[in-house]
Write a structure and sequence with these properties.
Mean pLDDT: 95
Shape: globular
Order of helices and strands: EHEHEHEEEHEEH
Low-confidence stretches: none
Strand order of the largest sheet: 7-6-1-3-2-8
Structural class: alpha+beta
Radius of gyration: 15 Å
Length: 173
């Protein structure tokens, strides 16, 4: 369990199956320290299991928690990469994965992160999605309590290169 509110060097993103989200961030930003887990669910449910989250009853999202050095990578760069590597226009879904645990979310740790996330979202919406008649459905809200996922989920696609990866987790532009 972790409460990272106020920590400007932590980013938390939900974009479908956390295996692929973690993998694509690490592929393009190898200096990041990442972990996968569960965020922004029902506060009366502590330390949820993967099975509980997949049931859809906990309201937790599968997410990636990123520790970053802003001298190397800015928060705005991470937000843009987040949008480049999934479909933020589908509510509660990425590819064949459906359910609230697969929603698109930016969970902010500071007011400045919220401001940056909203600015980047507006720019991305206008440049890449409005011309196609699509609307970003990503929730941008303060980060809730974080719970690490079970150990076998951490760096899953590094440890299981033939494991399932959602086809939306790729560079889209």
């Amino acid at each position: 369990m972790s409460d990272d509110s106020g920590n400007e060097n932590i980013a938390t993103f939900a974009a479908g199956c956390f295996w692929g989200v973690e993998h694509i961030f690490n592929k393009y930003f190898p200096d990041l320290k990442t972990s996968v887990g569960y965020s922004n669910g029902k506060e009366n449910i502590s330390n949820p299991s993967y099975r509980q989250v997949c049931s859809g009853t906990t309201e937790y999202a599968e997410a990636v928690r990123i520790e970053f050095d802003p001298a190397k990578t800015t928060y705005a760069q991470l937000v843009e990469h987040f949008y480049r590597t999934h479909d933020p226009t589908t509510a509660n879904r990425q590819g064949n994965d459906t359910g609230t645990q697969y929603r698109s979310g930016i969970y902010t740790h500071t007011d400045e992160q919220e401001k940056i996330a909203k600015e980047v979202t507006e720019r991305i919406q206008e440049k890449y999605f409005a011309p196609k008649g699509l609307t970003i459905t990503t929730e941008i809200i303060p980060a809730g309590t974080w719970y690490n996922a079970e150990e076998y989920h951490q760096k899953y696609l590094d440890n299981n290169p033939d494991g399932y990866q959602c086809p939306t987790h790729r560079l889209h532009w």
